[in-house]
Amino acid sequence: MQIYVGNLPTEFTDADLKLMFEPFGKVLAASIGKEPGYGFVEMQKKSEARAASDGLRGKEMQGKPLRAKILKPGDEFHKQAQALHGNSGFKGGAQQFRGAGGVRAGGAIRRGGQRGS
After folding, report:
1. 2-90: CATH superfamily
2. What tens-digit pLDDT sequence spans the chain (117 residues)?
């Protein structure tokens, strides 16, 4: 699973990013973006990625709260993450998902209310 991480200290390296996520599980790839301050991480298991995202989101680093978001096909940073990691880190990428343009097919998830209304 791919994770976007924002508000990183500008001196953070790929190795620092990987070390930050390793306590949550196996990190397949970690890269700082083209400009300092953000990066991308891929973790092997969804459960580990979610735990890392939840555990690190809002953690204060140099006076700024970290941003951590699980990426889905179609997200703003999804293609950028794939470009940074190439085929070696991010397995499958958008081709894992069904639907046009790498967007997951399905439908809306209804929460509450009555069906068919």
Report:
1. RRM (RNA recognition motif) domain (3.30.70.330)
2. 899 999 999 999 999 999 999 999 999 999 998 888 999 999 999 999 999 999 999 999 989 999 999 988 776 666 666 666 664 444 444 333 333 444 444 455 555 655 555
Q: Give the Cα separation of 101 and 111 in Å (integer).
A: 26
* Structure letter (DSSP) for residue 110: P
Tell me the whole-structure pTM to 2 decimals: 0.65
